[in-house]
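Lab notebook: predicted structure, single chain.

Context: the supervisor wants predicted structures on file for every construct in the current expression panel, including those that have not yet been purified. This is the next one on the list. No modifications to the sequence; it matches the entry in the shared construct table.
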Amino acid sequence: MNREKRLKKSVRYVLALGLALVLFMPGSAWCEVLKVVQPHQSLYPDPDFASTPVASVPVGAEVNVDTQAGDWYKVKYQGKVGWINLQAFQQPQAQPKFNLGNLLFGKPVKETSSDEVALAGKGFTPEVENAYRAKHPELHFAQVDRIETFTVPPARLRAFIKEGDLKP
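Prediction complete. Output recorded below exactly as produced.
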């Protein structure tokens, strides 16, 4: 009877050890799969936006994560191995179901966008822009709005960084 108890206890230890090995095993035998949720993502040979992209990764693509280094994941996608930034997987922030400002003070709270926060950090808020427009009606802000839509291809950005000997 005592021998039977020891055998059952040994079997439990072996099963627990086996489960622990499977759960914590490094390498490709146990890898996380993440889904790309942001458009215009690329796979890079190094964890650096200034490196030349290996492939583009569309929204909805699932990648197998090998390792993580800071804000970068080393992944496998369609037979290619490379790095992709964590921003590719971040969901937009969900809006709260209640307004804390209304609950506490009874007044609506004006929410700001990330663009407004960035501009405010530079001292250029929508209010400042509106005041500037009012003082200078002769200026054509349609051109400014158009310029804000321009994008720079990654290859040209890399060339600019290299030519200027800039640190990305």
